[in-house]
Structures are given as C-alpha cells and as structure tokens.
Design a protein that fits this description.
- Helices cover 73% and strands 0% of the residues.
- The protein is mainly alpha-helical.
- The protein has three domains: 74 residues, no CATH class; 87 residues; 103 residues, Serine Threonine Protein Phosphatase 5, Tetratricopeptide repeat (Alpha Horseshoe), CATH 1.25.40.
- Helix 5 packs antiparallel against helix 7.
- The longest helix has 26 residues.
Length: 290
Amino acid sequence: MGAGGLVAAFLLAAATGSQLPVAPESDAAAAVASAIADGDAHYARRAEGARGGTALPFHADGTIVEYRRALALDPHSFEARLRLMRAIYFRTGFCGPMDARDEIRMLDDAKSIAEEVVAELDTSTGRHKARVQVDAARAIVPAAEAYLWAAVSWGQWAVYHRLSGAWQGAPRRIRDLAEAAISIEPGTAEAGAYVLLGRLHCEAPRVPLLTGWVSREKGIAYLRQGLALAPDNEALAYFLADALLAWEPSRRDEARALLQRCAASKPRSEWLVEGAHYAEQARARLATLG
C-alpha cells in the first residue's frame, strides 16, 4: 500500500469508527520465523574464521541480534528465547575475552530468560524440583533442551555472582534443571546435562545448609554416564579426566588416557570451535602432568 493508500485508509477508519488495518497474524508469525531463521544461519556459521577453540565474534553477535529481533516481534517466542540462551553461552564461552560489563549484562539477561522459560515449562510439565510428568514434557518437543540451557544460563551467571548465586540457590537450581532435562531425554545436546551435573558435584564447595548434598563420587559417576551416552563429546572426556585427577588420583593413568584421547580428537563439523577448545584444554593439562 502506498502513502496515498495509507492516508485513505486512515480517513476511512476515522469516518466509520473502525480500527486501523493491522498486519495479519500470519505476517507477524512469518516475521518472527524469518528472524529466527536468520539467527540460525549465523549460528551455523559461528566457526568461520575461528582460530582453534576461539571463534570470531561476528556471527555469534549476529545470532544474538537476530534472536533479539525475534523477541522484539514476539516477546513470548519459546524458540527465540531457547536459542538466545544457547547463543549467549557460545558468545561468552568461545569467542575470547570481552568487556566484563557487557559479559555480565549478557549473562544476567540469559538468567532472566531462563527463569521465564522455566516458569512456563513448569506449568506444562508439572515439574516439582527435578521431577516432571515425563509424558507431558515429551509432548513439548524442546522441553529437555530448554531445561538444559536454563541450567547452563544459571551456571554461567553463578560464575560471576558467586556470593549472591550461592544465597539465591544457584547450585540447587542448576542441579534440579539438569536432572529435569535428563529425566525427559538423557542424550539432549550431546548429554550436556551430565557435564553440568558432573562439574557441579566435582567443583562446587560443600557448604552446610547450602550444598551439603554435593558428592564428588556422584560427579564422577555423572561424567562417566554422560561419556557412555555421548562418547565423542570432548567436554565429557576432558571434565572426567579433570575430576579423576582431583578426586581419584589413583586413576591418573585413566585420566591421562582421556586427556590424550581428547587432545587428539578431530573436531566434528557441527562442533568445530567447541571441540577444538577442549582439545586445547586437554593438551595444556597434559603438559602439566609431565
């Protein structure tokens, strides 16, 4: 419709008392879908120009811009929020150092989005702590993925807010969300929930009344279970080796073998930067073992 047509429509609406014409709902949905698709295209190219385990931020930033555009069009878009949590994780974790204030703002945003998504999911899945009505949850296709990325978002946020995170119950929150993801679909995102639970139990301090439930044995068991489900996941191999060196030093040879396996792994096409990142970490850790 040209400018003259818009003026005519306005005058007609004023004369008849009718509402001004609005974009059809299908057009709005198409605009959201287009923004998400553009974000997905950036995300698929996130490894372009990477140097080993460090990506250039261009496509990661483009991903975030497009998912935010989708949310501006539809603040309730489940898919856009889920993808935005994932994109912030990649941008803050695999693109090298960034301004601390910008990073904290991103992580604060991811945690807020996580809480919105979890509140909506809990209503649909009947979740109480880590327990969900599995049939209801599986009817919501990305439910396990959403719980997982919410747990990741909480985990990254807690790194920068250690004191307030502890008092806000971040460790318990991460645990419950990761366990919910496993109860729905254990293999989600390369068994990513097992990485979270393994690291949580192996790395979180045991504080009476706050994290007395933390168990190093459980942490190692979670990492082993995850690696059995996703044997090519470099992160699981690396963190299992790290946990064995810290808590079961008698298994030093097993830890070394896991690090060697991770260091020599060829990153897979869909995880080029992430795989290279953990291979680099493994090589650095091997160098300290002598």
